């Protein structure tokens, strides 16, 4: 008896799981926060942060596609005020994410506390605590990208 005849065959195919806009927004923010954490840890350690970016580029004469790594520029999301207190600002779509009405910055204290704060923020994003802020930022970004759209009346 052949092995293939003893197997139970089917025509099943994997289905792609479509992510909702909220899930995509959460993933985007978590990726940005993870980069900020790596940047903060390398700044605290006094090392140079190097985050490569992968993309496909045609480089040879035959037109073969070659994968290339280039350094990615990651802007730090924290700053120090006049009293040397560190503050952290989350960005979504290139703009500061408004956590509460009129509040975009989080007071950290000193820089070594920043990675722990970012871990807490990642947990909050995954728990869905910032979904409304993400949705507002995404809607604002969509309105900015669509110049012909008129602002909604409230």
Overall radius of gyration: 22 Å
**Strand arrangement, largest sheet?**
3-4-7
Report the count of strand segments. Answer: 7
Helix-strand pattern: HHEEEEEEEHH
Question: What structural category arises from helix and sheet content?
Answer: alpha+beta
List low-confidence stretches: none
**Biggest β-sheet, characterized?**
3 strands, antiparallel
Task: Determine the fraction of residues in helical runs and give it as a percent range.
Answer: 25-40%
Strand fraction: 15-25%
**Shape field:** extended
List the main descriptive attributes of the protein structure presented here.
alpha+beta, three-stranded antiparallel beta sheet, 4 helices, 38% helix
Fold blueprint:
Blueprint: H1 3-6, H2 21-45, E1 51-58, E2 65-72, E3 78-80, E4 86-89, E5 91-92, E6 95-96, E7 105-109, H3 114-127, H4 131-145
Antiparallel strand pairs: 1-2, 3-4, 4-7, 5-6
């Amino acid at each position: 008896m052949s092995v293939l005849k003893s197997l139970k065959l089917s025509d099943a195919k994997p289905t792609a799981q479509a992510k909702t806009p909220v899930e995509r927004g959460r993933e985007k923010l978590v990726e940005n926060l993870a980069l900020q954490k790596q940047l903060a840890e390398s700044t605290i350690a006094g090392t140079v942060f190097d985050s490569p970016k992968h993309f496909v580029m045609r480089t040879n004469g035959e037109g073969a596609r070659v994968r290339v790594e280039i350094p990615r520029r990651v802007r730090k999301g924290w700053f120090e005020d006049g009293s040397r207190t560190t503050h952290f600002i989350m960005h979504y779509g290139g703009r500061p994410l408004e956590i509460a009405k009129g509040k975009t910055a989080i007071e950290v204290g000193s820089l070594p506390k920043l990675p722990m704060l970012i871990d807490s923020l990642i947990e909050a994003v995954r728990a869905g605590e910032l979904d409304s802020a993400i949705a507002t930022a995404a809607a604002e970004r969509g309105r900015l990208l669509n110049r012909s759209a008129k602002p909604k009346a409230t």
